[in-house]
Design a protein that fits this description.
The chain has 391 residues and is an alpha+beta fold. 31% of the residues lie in helices and 17% in strands. The radius of gyration is 20 Å and the shape is globular. The relative contact order is 0.17.
Length: 391
C-alpha cells in the first residue's frame, strides 16, 4: 500500500500532468466535467455496432476525476440520451460491497472469517457431498472466495433466512476448498451479516456504507424519481441484429423484492467511484472511515492458491468478494498486478488499480453479452483510458 507522502506526491504530480494536458481534455460547458475524447470514441464505436445502447464511463487517478462520459442512449425507443447520472442494475458488482459489509463485522469482533457457516446458519452443519457429511465445515472465507462447493442460481426466495436454508440443502458441486465455482456464496454472507449484526441486510449496508460514503443513488429499491434515470436493459436479437428491450429477475423489485447480496443493487458511476476510491485510500474517504487499511488488504489480496483456476479471464485469483488481477494479460493488460474489482451480468465493470491509483468504471445494460469480463467493450475502454493517462 502507498504511504501518505507517496500518495500526496502522486496527487500533485497528477495535478500538474492534468494542467499541462488540459487542451486534450474536453469539458461539459455547464458542469465542467472532464471527458477524455479517446475513451468516449472507443465506447461509441461499439454503440454504433449495436453492442450496447449506451454507456457511462468513469476514470480517476489519485483521487481526481479525469473522465466521466456518457454516450449513446439510455432508452432507444424514446431516443432518450444516456446521462452521466444514469442508474444501472449493477448485478454481481454487488458482491464486493457485501463482502466489505461483512468485513466491518470482522473488525468489530462479531465475525471471524474462518468461522464455520453453521455458527450463523445452523442448517449448514448438515451439508453433504455425495451423500456424506463433510469432515470439515464450510467456512466464511470459502463462501467469500467461491471455494465452498456451492453452486446454482443466486436468487433470494422470500428472505435471506429462508435462502440460507435452501442453500444448505442444495447438493455441493465439489469438496470445499478444492475448486473455484462461481456461486451464491455472497447470499450466505448476507445472511451472516443479518445474524451477526441483528439488522436486516439492506439496512446494515445503508447504515455502514451507503450513508457514510454519501452513495445517495445506491439502492436495492429505486424510488420513483430514481426509476426515471434507470437505463433500459437490452439484449441482441440474433435474427435482426438489433437491440431489443430485455427482462431479468436481477434488479426486478416486483418479482424479487428482497435485497440480494449477490446481485441486487442499482447505482451510478459517481457513487461507485466513491466506494472504490475509499478502497484505494485504505478504507477512508475524506474524514469518513469505513474499514482499516489491514481489512482492505485482506479483502483485496489473493486468497485462493495458484493451483486453483478462478474467474472469467486468465491471470486472476480471488480475494474476499473481489476478483484480483495477478498477471495482467489480454483484456486486463492495461491494469496493474493487484488490481481488484468485479463485473456484472449486464456488462458492467468496476476496477481499482492500487499501483497506478486509478479507478475504472464501465456501466452498460446489456444481457446475452456473453463473458462481459472478457468483452471487447471492457478492453477498449480500459486501453483507451490507459493510453491517454500514460502519455
Amino acid at each position: 500500500m502507498q504511504t501518505p507522502h507517496w500518495t500526496l506526491f502522486r496527487s500533485w504530480t497528477a495535478f500538474l500532468i492534468l494542467a499541462i494536458a488540459m487542451p486534450a481534455l474536453a469539458e461539459d460547458p455547464a458542469g465542467k466535467v472532464p471527458v477524455i475524447e479517446q475513451v468516449d470514441q472507443a465506447v461509441a464505436k461499439l454503440v454504433d455496432k449495436n453492442v450496447v445502447a449506451g454507456a457511462v464511463t468513469l476514470v480517476s487517478e489519485d483521487g481526481k476525476l479525469v473522465h466521466l462520459g456518457a454516450v449513446g442512449n439510455a432508452d432507444i425507443e424514446s431516443n432518450k440520451p444516456m446521462t452521466r447520472d444514469a442508474m444501472f442494475a449493477i448485478a454481481s458488482m454487488t458482491k464486493p460491497i457485501t463482502a466489505t459489509a461483512l468485513m466491518i463485522l470482522v473488525e468489530e469482533g462479531k465475525v471471524n472469517l474462518d468461522d464455520p457457516v453453521s455458527k450463523y446458519i445452523p442448517e449448514f452443519a448438515d451439508v453433504k457431498l455425495d451423500g456424506k457429511k463433510l469432515e470439515k465445515p464450510i467456512t466464511l472465507r470459502q463462501v467469500l472466495t467461491h471455494t465452498a462447493g456451492l453452486g446454482g442460481d443466486q436468487r433470494v426466495v422470500k428472505s435471506l433466512e429462508n435462502q440460507g436454508k435452501i442453500l444448505a440443502e442444495r447438493p455441493l458441486f465439489s469438496l470445499p476448498g478444492t475448486k473455484w465455482q462461481y456461486s451464491p456464496g455472497l447470499n450466505v454472507a448476507g445472511r451472516v451479516i443479518e445474524v451477526a449484526s441483528g439488522k436486516p441486510y439492506g439496512e446494515y449496508l445503508q447504515e455502514k456504507i451507503f450513508t457514510p460514503l454519501k452513495m445517495n443513488d445506491t439502492t436495492f429499491a429505486p424510488s420513483e424519481k430514481q426509476q426515471a434515470r434507470i437505463a433500459t436493459l437490452y439484449a441482441l436479437d440474433k435474427d435482426s441484429g438489433e437491440l431489443k428491450p430485455s427482462t431479468s429477475w436481477i434488479g426486478n423489485v416486483k418479482t424479487d423484492p428482497y435485497p440480494n447480496p449477490s446481485a441486487g443493487l442499482y447505482s451510478t458511476a459517481s457513487d461507485l467511484h466513491r466506494f472504490y476510491q475509499m478502497m484505494l485510500n485504505g478504507g477512508f474517504l475524506g474524514d469518513t472511515k469505513i474499514l482499516s487499511r489491514a481489512s482492505v488488504t485482506e479483502l483485496t489480496k489473493a486468497q485462493t492458491p495458484d493451483e486453483i483456476v478462478t474467474g472469467f479471464t486468465p491471470g486472476n485469483r480471488w480475494g474476499l468478494g473481489f476478483c484480483v488481477v495477478r498477471e495482467p494479460q489480454g483484456v486486463t493488460e492495461a491494469l496493474s498486478p493487484g488490481t481488484f474489482g468485479h463485473g456484472g451480468a449486464f456488462g458492467t465493470q468496476s476496477w481499482g488499480d492500487p499501483e497506478k491509483g486509478r479507478v475504472y468504471l464501465l456501466l452498460v445494460q446489456r444481457s446475452n453479452l456473453g463473458n462481459s469480463d472478457g468483452s471487447d467493450l471492457r478492453q477498449d475502454f480500459q486501453n483507451a483510458a490507459n493510453a491517454w493517462l500514460s502519455k
